[in-house]
Amino acid sequence: MKKFNVKKFFVYFFLVIGALIMIFPFYWMIINSLKTAQDMTLYPPSWTPSNWFNFENYKVAFEKAPFALYFLNSIIVTISCLIITTFTTIMGAFAFSRLKFKGRDLIFSLLLGLMMVPFEMLVITNYMTVAKIGIIDTLFVLILPFTSSIFYTYILRNFFLSIPDSLYYSARIDGASNWKYLWRIMVPIAKPSLVTITILNAITCWNSFYWTLLVINSDAKRTLPYGLYAFMTEGGSDMKLMMAAATITIVPMIILFLFARKYIVNGVARGGLKG
Amino acid sequence: MQIKIDHLTKKFPDTVAVDDFTMDFESGKLTALLGPSGCGKSTMLNMLAGILPVTEGHIYFDDDDVTDMPPQKRGVGLVFQNYALYPHMTVLENICFPLEIQKVNKAERIEKAKEMAKLVQIDQYLDRLPKELSGGQQQRVAIARALIKNPRLLLLDEPLSNLDARLRLEMREEIRRIQQETKVTTIFVTHDQEEAMSISDSIVLMKNGVLMQVDKPQELYDDPKHQFVASFLGNPPINMIDGKINEDGDFELLDNSTVIKLNSKVGQVGQEVVLGIRPEAITFDEVKNAKAEIIQRYTMGKEELANIKIGSAEIRVYLSSDYTYKTGDIIEITLRDKGVFLFDKESGKRL
Ligand SMILES: Nc1ncnc2c1ncn2[C@@H]1O[C@H](COP(=O)(O)OP(=O)(O)OP(=O)(O)O)[C@@H](O)[C@H]1O
Ligand SMILES: [Mg+2]
Question: Could you report the per-residue pLDDT of A25-37, keeping only the tens digit for each?
């Protein structure tokens, strides 16, 4: 028989506790979204809904507020941001790592310096800008300020720098242009980094709230987080409906995370480049 | 293809990596670029490949001036020291890549790649990723990728330095075979003199960016034009003794402790010189050039050697077991004509 390993036991013990603490809010949210009005009156609150397939609250939530529309808005905004940001990040990272031009490092340092400016401050100037252009209260205004990211460019640039020069020269001798080299060699190699960046970015875009609150007025342009917020303030405080709405909001991110789990872990834990 | 370089110079901010090089590389031959670490071999190769701009001078491929031609137009294949295989592509995709860029259709390029893979004997690994291959196998892939576009010139930058001693022997024969089968003009960088001696048609020996001598391997060994050339080649290394030329035109140690008679008196009286004696250049015949004392006898591999002392200078020579001299014996030595060189002390030039 295998010997009982005390050290391992404690490690797993605490890991399990940690996991439970992390999972609990999600669990609580989901079971509450499935409870009936009667379940809600129980004291102490029950740990399970009386019927695991009671989707009544979801139905009511969808009736009370146009969550389907919010959902669509969120998808449009998030996917647009993702596509454009990923593209600009790749181009920027390539330029700052591979191309040689005057003042490259200076420009890059300045950009990094910009990261020190807190988002809340940028909001003011951004607001004035979009107000002047006259795109307030459109979906476009939710996309435009988030089409590039210095932070992601920085991460990807560092990854690109870790790819040996000889690969670049080799590709050039094989006849590849910069463009071809970028898309055929660099981007595929950087895939784990790119997936990590994309997921982080997706979560940020999906959850973006403050800016939305500021620039969106009409009901039809709301995204999910804003919709959820409005639902809570306008629709009274029916806990089970709120929990149903909250679940609708986070499900896509959970699905995304489950699909990309492998890449996130790889991306975070990736060492140098081998081979 | 004949390559001609004309007063080629490459300056980096704080070094001159290649200094005023003028020479020709013969068409269809395998030439080794040999020299100690940091002497500018890679720099030279990268300029030929077009990935480093030249500071001064010109490079000609046959009659075309390619000095400012971008790498993709030069028609060269380059194998890097670390092979530079694309890590996310399989062996087959790696070999196909240059043809993919040329937009050769898929069926054709795969057929061609398989042919190349057969030539370098990696056809059983086509579906593997580079990291699933051994160093020697990776090298073959790199060579196949360099050869598939039918380069006019194949450049290899220390391709063997990552391999263990046995594989290195095997692979250098392999490179020789591939080169002779394809007849492609090849330049091969190495800092290993034995490697250069064993597979190249000619050797370019350089030091600190300066061209020291270009010759066939044996001639470089037998007829060095410079002290550096003589001391760089040969294992065990050549013995170098400082001294001057006396009134009789013979060699005298600096501290006047002894005189070594020279077979050919090429120095000028009073000139400070360095006498180079290869370990195999000393025999024990009738002609007596000098007296020496046996200090120690030993074996290295299957060679038998001895340290002997001529005056105050200690040198290493071959001493076969036919001779029964013991430590402390005073013997008379004979200098052969071959393997004994006299260099000017100041310039290092051969006299
Ligand atoms: N990009 C560079 N910038 C500045 N100096 C450089 C650069 N590349 C090489 N050098 C210098 O040029 C000289 C020659 O370098 P090179 O790489 O050609 O040497 P090498 O003969 O290939 O040496 P090794 O056998 O170690 O590879 C060295 O002194 C090196 O420091
Ligand atoms: Mg080198």
Answer: 999 999 988 888 8
Hey, what long-range contacts does A158-166 have (CB within 8 A, 24 or more apart)?
A159/A93, A159/A190, A159/A193, A160/A93, A160/A94, A160/A97, A160/A98, A160/A186, A160/A190, A161/A97, A162/A272, A162/A273, A163/A189, A163/A190, A163/A273, A164/A273, A164/B82, A164/B84, A166/B80, A166/B81, A166/B82, A166/B84
Q: Which residues of B touch A170 (CB under 8 A)?
A: 78, 80, 84
**C-alpha to C-alpha distances, A114 to A98, B6, B192, nearest whole angstrom:** 22, 50, 51
pLDDT over 70 at A1, yes or no: no
**Dihedral-angle region of residue B281 (phi above 0 means left; psi in -120 to 50 means alpha; beta otherwise):** alpha
ipTM at complex level: 0.78
- Cα torsion B45, B92, B116, A164 to 10°: value is 10
By DSSP bridging, strand B185-190 and strand B153-157 are parallel
- pLDDT at residue B170, as a whole number: 83
| A116-125, A218-227, B50-59: which is most confident | B50-59
Angle, CA B148 vertex, CA B147 and CA B151 arms, to 5°: 55
The CA distance from B25 to the nearest CA of chain A, in Å, is 20
Tell the residue nearest (CA) to atom 23 of ligand 1.
Answer: B38
Token look-up 């029964």 returns: B324
What are the strands of the beta sheet with B272-277, ordered from one edge?
Answer: B259-260, B251-253, B239-245, B272-277, B340-344
Exposure on the CB side of residue A273, measured as CA atoms within 13 A: 23
Residue matched to tokens 């987080």: A225
Q: Which of B72, B81, B130 is nearest residue A173 as measured by Cβ atoms?
A: B72
User: Longest Cα pair distance anywhere in chain B, in angstroms?
Assistant: 79
Banded model confidence at residue A65, pLDDT cuts 50, 70, 90: confident
The contacts of residue B99 (CB under 8 Å, 6+ apart) are: B108, B109, B112, B113, B148, B149
* Structural domains of chain A ordered from first start: 1-54 (no CATH), 61-271 (1.10.3720.10)
Token pair listed for B350: 């051969």
Task: Pick the closest to residue A152 from A96, A101, A80 (CA basis).
Answer: A96
- Distance from residue B33's CA to the centre of ligand 2 (Å): 10
Six token digits for residue B124: 């059983």
Q: State residue A271's pLDDT score.
A: 40
Closest CA to A220 of A73, A80, A81, A75: A73
- Residues of chain B with pLDDT below 50 are none
Q: Which residues pair with B292 in a beta bridge?
A: B331
As a whole number of Å, the CA-based R_g of chain A is: 24
Please give the model's pTM, rounded to 2 decimal places. Answer: 0.79
DSSP A117-145: S-HHHHHHHHHHHHHHHT-TTSSHHHHGG
- Determine phi and psi for B201, rounding to 5 degrees: -80, -35
Asked if residue B191 has its Cβ within 6 Å of ligand 1, the reply is: yes
Half-sphere exposure of A118 (CA within 13 A, CB side): 2
Write phi, then psi, for A156 (nearest 5 degrees): -70, -35
- Cβ neighbour number for residue B337 with a 10 Å cutoff: 8
For tokens 């990854």, what's the residue? A159
Token pair of B149 as six digits: 């576009």
- For A254, the token pair is 């959970």
